[in-house]
# Entry
Amino acid sequence: MRYVKTLLTALALAVQLPAMAAAIPVTLYKNPNCYCCDLYAKYLDENGFKVDVINTTDLTSIKQKYSVPEKLEGCHTAIVQGYVVEGLVPAQFVQQMLKEHRPIKGLALPGMPMGAPGMPGAKMKPLHVYTLDASSSPVVFGSF
Ligand SMILES: [Cu+2]
# Structure
């Protein structure tokens, strides 16, 4: 029994260490009353990121500061390696953008659609992640 316990501990460490080493820092600005943002922060933490949550009741000025267009607004705004990640964008798209060093300002998943990371329920239809770019109308970066 003791051996099994030691083995399990060793396995758990082996699984955790690489993920911790590679964790990408994220600063996430959210309203203290929005619960899906907390679940989304937890989701990012479990998917290769290390999230620093900052509660604020003045998200409007954060969105203005990072020039998030009104039609692309989500319930929180996150900053990752100089990119803006607006709303409940799946981790895979954030990782893809970082890996490919995309020449965009960031990504956005507008609103709080069901089935997005941090939101309960099933998707009603495919959800689209848009590029954040002040110069042009939104372009679909990816769908899920
Ligand atoms: Cu939220």
